[in-house]
Amino acid sequence: MTIHEHALQPLVSGLGFGEAPRWHEDALWISDIARREVLRIDTASGAVQRILSTPGEPSGLGWLPDGSLLVVQMEEHEVLRWHRGNLSLYSRTGAVSRSRLNDMVVDRNGRAWVSNMGFDYESEPRQSTNLVGLEPDGRALAAATELWCPNGMAINPANTLLVVGQSASREILSFRIASTGELCDRAVFGTHPKGGCSDGLCMDAAGALWIASPTTHEFLRMEPGGNITDRVATGERHAIACVLGGPERRTLFCLTAATLSIRAARLSTDGRVETVRVAVPGAGTP
Predict the structure, then answer these.
(1) Does some domain include residue 286?
(2) CA angle (186, 61, 239) in 5-degree steps
(3) Would 149 be classed as within a structural domain?
């Protein structure tokens, strides 16, 4: 089957290490982990606005039903809440998370899931970890066990399916979200081609995923079952995360980096936001 190839177009450069892109209120929001900032980008002009600075390194972003922004703090194993200009503690996850926290997705009921690395990929051997669930009151629990560096996540428009990529496994997992918020019916959504793995991801209206694969330097569109339909090569740069946004949600906003080391990125300005126009619009969260 033919795989459609796409080329990236530049939008923003000079970032430290961009993560967790979100399309929210007609703008692109991202975390800059290396600079400890949450940014809002006007995609028409490319203007970058700093929304807030965080005490620790930020990653996953999501919004509660009341409009509050949740921000993951990686090394602190905390999620902060930013509301009306005030930053406060929302949840501590250390009892159920290992190594650093990473990405996050928040559903329309205010329930969130937070990924964590499980091990320091720059210095430690691999080990499995939990996927963290956050109840609407901020209480943290182990929502699923035995995941290998869970990373990017997406929820379908019906709020009944959670998809979880893994950075230390080629498998992308899916879970049915019960009415209670419990994750059930664990299954494999699809498997990366050899050498690939998942960083950030998002879902489109056909139920396929756009997935950043940093190890193979590409963004891939994967259908349920694992069939790859589209590919965006990033050359020597690493594919970090992506989200579908824009007026019709037909623009794939792609975050790329020159290094996978956050430590090295603290001293660089090599992070970028790049774009691709796609045929199938985005759906669900993020």
Answers:
(1) no
(2) 75
(3) yes
Query: Is 229 inside a domain boundary?
Result: yes
Residue-wise pLDDT for 237-256, tens only, equals 999 999 999 999 999 999 99
Say what the pLDDT of residue 121 is: 67
Structure confidence at residue 99 (pLDDT)? 84
Element housing 210 (H / E) = strand 209-213
Indicate the residue type of 73: Q
Q: What is the pLDDT of residues 10-50, one digit of tens each?
A: 999 999 999 999 999 999 999 999 999 999 999 999 999 99
Q: How far is residue 195's CA from residue 97's CA, in Å, rounded to a whole number?
A: 26
Instruction: For residue 108, give the CATH number of its domain.
Output: 2.120.10.30
| pTM for the full predicted model | 0.96
Domain span including residue 183:
4-277
Q: Which tokens hold the place of 46?
A: 């490319």
101-106: strand order across its sheet: 101-106, 112-116, 129-134, 140-147
Q: 285 in a domain, yes or no?
A: no
For 119, the token pair is 């091990």
Question: What integer is the mean pLDDT of 158-162?
Answer: 98
